Amino acid sequence: MENRKTALSRRIGRAAAILFLTAAPAIGASQTIRPGDIWRDDRTLRIQAHGGGILRYRGVYYWFGEDRGQDLDRDKRYVSCYSSKDLVNWTFRNDVLKLSDPENFGPTWVLERPKVFYNPKTKKFVMYMHIDGPLPGETGGYKLARVGVATSDRVDGDYRYLRSFRPLGHESRDIGQFIDDDGAPYLIFEDRPFGFRIATLSADYLTVEKEVCLIPLHLEGGAVAHYQGLYYAIGSALTGWNPNPNKYATAKSLAGPWSEFRDIAPPETKTYGSQSTMMLKVVGRKATTVIFMGDIWKPHSQWDSRYLWMPLEIGGGKLWLPEPKPWTLNVKTGRAAILK
Fold first, then answer.
1. Which of 198, 249, 259, 292 has the fewest CB atoms within 10 Å, i.e. the most exposed one?
2. pLDDT mean over 97-126
C-alpha cells in the first residue's frame, strides 16, 4: 500500500512539474507589452522608471528611471532600477539613488532622465542625469541647466553622486544616451539657445569630452539609434509636459550632415500622447527590432505617468511609430509582432 502511495505521489509531482514548465514562459519567449496600460513589477507595484534608459549588462536588461511614487520622501529625488531578461517582466532591484539637495540648489531642484553607462575599462557604472532648478537668488524655472554624475561598483548598487556641470560649457536640460555598435558612449543633450548636441564621453566616462555635432533645431527628449548603416535621431518640441509631434532625421555619420526632420507619427496624434526618451535596439538571432520608448506624462499625478513602448517601422532612411497596440517581443530571435 505504501509503495502505491509513493508511486502515485511521484506521478502527481511529475505532472505538476510538467504543468509548471508548460505554464511558465521560457526566457526569450514572445510575451505581450501593452502600451499605455499600468505596467507592474514583480511586487505587483507600478513600475516607476520615468524618463528612463536601458542598459544591457551580462545578458540582462536594466531599466533606470525617475521614481515618482506617492510614498517617497519629498525632500529627496529617487532613481529606480529594474531588471528583466525579456523586456516584459521586470524585477525591482533598488532605488539606486536617493539624493537630498546635493549642492544647495534649493528646495525646488529637480533630477530627471537618468541614464547609466558601463565602463568596461574602469568596471564602473556611471549615471548621468539632468540637474536643474533656479539660479542662486532666484525662484522657479529651469535655469541651472546642468548634468549630474554618479557612480557605482554594482549595476543595481547605491550610486554615489559626484558633481554637476555644464557639458563643454553649454546648457543641458533633457539628456539621452547612445552606445554605438562599437561600444562608444555618447551623451545627447538639449542646449536651449542653440539646439540638440551629441558628444563623446571621456575615457573614464566621468565628463563630456568632445562635441560630435550640433543639430540646430530646438528639440528635447533626444534619442539616437544606428540601424543598417544609418543613424536615426528623434526629438520632441519644447512644449513642457504637453505632448507634441516628435520628429526624426537621418545621417550616415553622427557628425552629419543630417536630413530634414520629419514626423514619426500622424502629427494630429501628438506622438499618441507620448514623448521620446530612448530608442532601444534588440538584436536577435533572426531579426533586429528598434523599440521606441516614450513617456505618457501626467504632470498633476506624476506617479501615474505611463509608458508607450512600440516597435518602430525603420529602414532605408524612413522611421514610423505605429498606432499603439498590444505587441509581442522575443528577445532571443529579435522578432516583434503587433497584435490585431
1. 259
2. 97
Q: What is the pLDDT of residues 205-263, one digit of tens each?
A: 999 999 999 999 999 999 999 999 999 999 999 999 999 999 999 999 999 999 999 99
Mean pLDDT of 110-132: 98
Q: What is the mean pLDDT of residues 291-303?
A: 97
Give the chain as a 3 state SS string: CHHHHHHHHHHHHHHHHHHHHHHCCCCCCCEEECCCCCCECCCCCECCCEEEEEEEECCEEEEEEEECCCCCCCCEEEEEEEEECCCCCCEEEEEEEEEECCCCCCCCCEEEEEEEEEECCCCEEEEEEEEECCCCCCCCCCCCCEEEEEEECCCCCCCEEEEEECHHHCCCCCEEEEECCCCCEEEEEEECCCEEEEEEECCCCCCEEEEEEEECCCCEEEEEEEECCEEEEEEECCCCCCCCCCEEEEECCCCCCCCCCEECCCHHHHHHHCEEEEEEEEECCCCEEEEEEEEECCCCCHHHCEEEEEECEEECCEEECCCCCCEEEECCCCEEEECC
Domain assignment of residue 2, yes or no: no
CATH number of the domain enclosing 161: 2.115.10.20
Give the three cell numbers for residue 111. Answer: 533630477
For residue 280, tell me if it sits in a domain: yes
Q: What percent of the chain clears pLDDT 70, i.e. is strictly above it?
A: 91
Q: What's the mean per-residue pLDDT of the chain?
A: 92
Once rounded to an integer, what is the mean pLDDT over residues 121-128? 98
Domain span at residue 324? 35-338
The domain total for the chain is: 1
Tell me whether residue 11 is in a domain: no
CB 115 within 8 A of CB 86: no
